[in-house]
Structure formats: structure tokens, C-alpha cells
């Protein structure tokens, strides 16, 4: 029997010993511009590290759309997964009956760093300053990936191995669909529980909203045999964007959920991209508006789609031009439902104990204003899953950063949590 207090002290010391190496590992990951759809080079690096340094059995493959497109958790992409590898490193337990299986899963992809000129330093060259590390993906979520990898490394370098099966999974396309995580689960890489290192300040999440992506297209040109008429489409964009903002206000005024009472506007609608025109002296006739709208747990994707369609139709019905030129609306990318967690489960209790032992503080909870891959585990595979990771800021914005001391603490929490959940013994 391994003494838990002694084990924790050993793991904590080992994390301290490995800290500079962990920091350099994180900086190396940030230097890979692993935008969604371009995760391949980073995944090759991680697959090699899991094989050579951690001695895990590694599988690497790309999501197969035909195997997941009928799944209720599938989100329809407009892109391929040719350069979007899934990497899974597996340790087979030596005595499975004495522990529980566990997955640590992070996502390799990051969002665009544009406008890169607004960053204080290059988004792809990590900058260490005042206890923070700046760079695209530093918090979301390469800091967490470094923590989960070095937590396992601390265990094996202390001379222990997990008694039960353990996996490190790094998946692609979390930022656009979550299909990478879904493909890994559908391929049979499941466990009793999972942890995802979302960077929300060492607080375990108890709920997250869903997300639906949309694209609204406008066309303002008409042609027949005798004449052609057209209107400047940019002049019509304001009607649609104003309608979308009104839709967001309407949803937050008419929908609520007790778990999200700490958030002022949990149903966020974000207009993320507007495209129109190509030349200063041309009259633009095509435009698109792309965005994302949230869903509370229990709300259905199909219902939110219909609500948005009906809202835009209603908001434009008195405009003669829109009567003759109705916008078209397409839904692609995220089709994600919201989820809730039972924070009294054994998984939460084990993580709470590890958090308290490392940080000497009481664990706290929070809900997430975004969607994560945790939904797949919870909704479709009955796998208890926690999002818990380091402190960070400016996610999806200029000058993203992660707090370095929090990464060290999280690494220690993960190591203690993994050891207690799976059980360990000397090699």
C-alpha cells in the first residue's frame, strides 16, 4: 500500500524538479501555429513525446466523417481533416480491479491570432513576463496540456505506474466543432472518467452552455432579360446585425437557468465575421455574416435554429427590399448542446481532495460561458467529466496569457488526482 501523504510529497517535489523542462515544453508547443485544421505538426511532436518520454502506446489517426456524421453529437464542417490528427497515448493498468480508468484530454487547435500586429509580441513566440506567459494558445489550452503530460511524467519518474488504464488524448478541431473528441470516443477510446484542462482558474466547472454556428448570406443583384438592378449590400447589413443583437437580448430576457444565475447574459450571441465588397469604387452585392449563439442546458439545437430563422424573418418583414431579397441562413460548425455536472460525484470529490491538498484552499465551482468537449463524454457516453485548469486571460483575444504558478499548481493537482483515482504502485 502506497502512503498517500508520502506520495503527494514525492509528486510535488518531482513537479518542482521538472518545472523548467515543463515550461520549455509549453513554449515549444506555442511555437507551433496549430490553428484549427492545421494541427498536424504539433500532433507529430506530441505523439513522439508520448512515445519516447512517457513510453505510452500511441495511436494517431484523423477523424473519419463517415463514422461520426450520423451521431447526435456531430457538428457539420465545411472543411476536411487531412491535417487534423488525433493523438492518444495509452497506459494499460497492471491491476485494473484496484482503480478506475481515466482520460486526460486536451485540444491541440487554437483560434486565429489576428490581428497579429496588435499583440505586444509575436503570438507565436512565447513571452515570459511578470509571472505570465503570453502567446496564442498559452492558456487555451497548451498550458493545460503541458500540465497533464508532466503530471503523468512526475508519477513515472517517481518510480510509480498507474494500476488502472490511463490515457492522454490530444484532439483537433475543438474550436469549431468538437468532432475530434467525438471521433476518439467513437473509436472506442473511453474510460470511467475524464478531465479536460480548460483554463478557468483552478475551479471545477459544473455546467456549460451549448453553441450553434450560423452564416447569413445577402445578395442584392437581380437580372432578367431586359435589365439588371442592384443595391449596395453594405447598406443592408445593419438591419441584420441589429436584429441579431435584439435576438440576444430577447433570449436572455425570456430564458433562464438556475445554474447560470451568476452570469448576466449566459446566452451570448457573437457576430464574429462580416464579409462584403472587394474594391472601393465597386458597389458590393454579396455579403455574409457569420456568428455563434449559445444554448442553455436542456435547450434543443433544432429549436434554436428555428427561433433564429423566425426572428430574422419577423425583423425584416416590413422592409420592402428584404421581402424581395430575403437572406439565406445556413448552420454549420458547432451544433453543441449545453450540459450540467453532478459535483457530488466521486470524480469531483477526488479532484477536490487533490486541489485542497496542493493549494491549501477550499475548492470552488463555476459555470462556463462557452462549450467544451466535455459535452460528448457526458451526453453520449455517460462518462463523468470535469473541466479544471490554470489561470489565464484574453482567450480568443489579443495578448492571450497564462499564469505560470497556476500551471505548476495544476500539474501537482493532476498528478495527485491521477494517482489516487487510478491507484499506483512501484514499478
Automatic annotation (TrEMBL):
Classification of source organism: Bacteria, Bacillati, Bacillota, Bacilli, Bacillales
Cofactors named for this entry: Zn(2+)
InterPro entries with a match to the protein in the record: ArgE/DapE, Peptidase_M20, Peptidase_M20A
GO MF assignments: hydrolase activity
Entry protein name: ArgE/DapE family deacylase
Broad class of enzyme this protein falls into: hydrolase
Claim: Zinc is one of the keywords in the record: yes
Family: Belongs to the peptidase M20A family.
Keywords attached to this entry: Cobalt, Hydrolase, Zinc
Keyword Hydrolase assigned: yes
SUPFAM superfamilies for the chain: Zn-dependent exopeptidases (SSF53187)
Naturally occurring in which organism (per UniProt): Shouchella hunanensis
Gene3D superfamilies assigned: 3.30.70.360, Zn peptidases (3.40.630.10)
EC number: 3.4.-.-
Amino acid at each position: 500500500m502506497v502512503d498517500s501523504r508520502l506520495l503527494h510529497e514525492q509528486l510535488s517535489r518531482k513537479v518542482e524538479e521538472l518545472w523548467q523542462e515543463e515550461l520549455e515544453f509549453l513554449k515549444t508547443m506555442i511555437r507551433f501555429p496549430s490553428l484549427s485544421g492545421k494541427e498536424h505538426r504539433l500532433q507529430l511532436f506530441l505523439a513522439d513525446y508520448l512515445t519516447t518520454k512517457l513510453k505510452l502506446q500511441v495511436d494517431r489517426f484523423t477523424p473519419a466523417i463517415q463514422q461520426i456524421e450520423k451521431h447526435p453529437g456531430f457538428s457539420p464542417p465545411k472543411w476536411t481533416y487531412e491535417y487534423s490528427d488525433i493523438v492518444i497515448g495509452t497506459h494499460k493498468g497492471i491491476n485494473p480491479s484496484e482503480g478506475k480508468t481515466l482520460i486526460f484530454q486536451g485540444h491541440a487547435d487554437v483560434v486565429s491570432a489576428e490581428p497579429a500586429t496588435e499583440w505586444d509580441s509575436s503570438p507565436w513566440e512565447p513571452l515570459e513576463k511578470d509571472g505570465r506567459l503570453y502567446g496564442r494558445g498559452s492558456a487555451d489550452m497548451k498550458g493545460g496540456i503541458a500540465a497533464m503530460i508532466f503530471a503523468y511524467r512526475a508519477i513515472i519518474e517517481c518510480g510509480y505506474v498507474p494500476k488502472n488504464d490511463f490515457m492522454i488524448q490530444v484532439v483537433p478541431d475543438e474550436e469549431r466543432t468538437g468532432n475530434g473528441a467525438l471521433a476518439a470516443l467513437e473509436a472506442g477510446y473511453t474510460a470511467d472518467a475524464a478531465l479536460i484542462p480548460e483554463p478557468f482558474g483552478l475551479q471545477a466547472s459544473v455546467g456549460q452552455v451549448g453553441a450553434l454556428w450560423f452564416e447569413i448570406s445577402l445578395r442584392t443583384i437581380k437580372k432578367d432579360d431586359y435589365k439588371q438592378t442592384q443595391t449596395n449590400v453594405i447598406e443592408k447589413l445593419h438591419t441584420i446585425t441589429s436584429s441579431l443583437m435584439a435576438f440576444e437580448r430577447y433570449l436572455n430576457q425570456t430564458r433562464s437557468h438556475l445554474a447560470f444565475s451568476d452570469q448576466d447574459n449566459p446566452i451570448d450571441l457573437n457576430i464574429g465575421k462580416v464579409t462584403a465588397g472587394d474594391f472601393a469604387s465597386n458597389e458590393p452585392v454579396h455579403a455574409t455574416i457569420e456568428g455563434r449563439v449559445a444554448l442553455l442546458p436542456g435547450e434543443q439545437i433544432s429549436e434554436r435554429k428555428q427561433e433564429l430563422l423566425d426572428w430574422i424573418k419577423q425583423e425584416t418583414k416590413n422592409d420592402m427590399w428584404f421581402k424581395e431579397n430575403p437572406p439565406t441562413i445556413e448552420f454549420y460548425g458547432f451544433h453543441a448542446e449545453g450540459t450540467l455536472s453532478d459535483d457530488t460525484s466521486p470524480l469531483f470529490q477526488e479532484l477536490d481532495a487533490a486541489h485542497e491538498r496542493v493549494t491549501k484552499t477550499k475548492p470552488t465551482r463555476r459555470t462556463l460561458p462557452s462549450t467544451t468537449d466535455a459535452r460528448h463524454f457526458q451526453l453520449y457516453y455517460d462518462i463523468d467529466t470535469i473541466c479544471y485548469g490554470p489561470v489565464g486571460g484574453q482567450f480568443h483575444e489579443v495578448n492571450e496569457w497564462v499564469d505560470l504558478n497556476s500551471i505548476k499548481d495544476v500539474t501537482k493537482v493532476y498528478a495527485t488526482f491521477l494517482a489516487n483515482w487510478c491507484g499506483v504502485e512501484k514499478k
